[in-house]
Specification:
single chain; alpha+beta; 3 helices; about 15% strand
Length: about 70
């Protein structure tokens, strides 16, 4: 499985909302999850998930991490 990583700068994270201001739900990251696959599953992008959760990199997420996921 190919891993896709994105690094965000301080400027990207300043006032981050991922360009999304609507309702969200909380998802608990599980062992074997991949942030890119979660973004695809829930109809969003990796960048939105990173910004919404104030993460710099996708590999920062560990099992048990609670993530905000946009509801579309």
């Amino acid at each position: 499985m190919e891993k896709r990583f994105m690094m965000l700068s301080d400027e990207d994270l300043a006032g981050a909302s991922g360009g999304y201001a609507g309702p969200t739900f909380v998802y608990t990251f599980q062992n074997g999850d991949d942030l890119y696959q979660l973004a695809t599953r829930y109809g969003t992008t990796l960048r939105v998930l990173l910004e919404l959760n104030k993460l710099r990199r996708a590999d920062e997420v560990k099992p048990g991490t609670r993530l905000l996921i946009p509801q579309r």
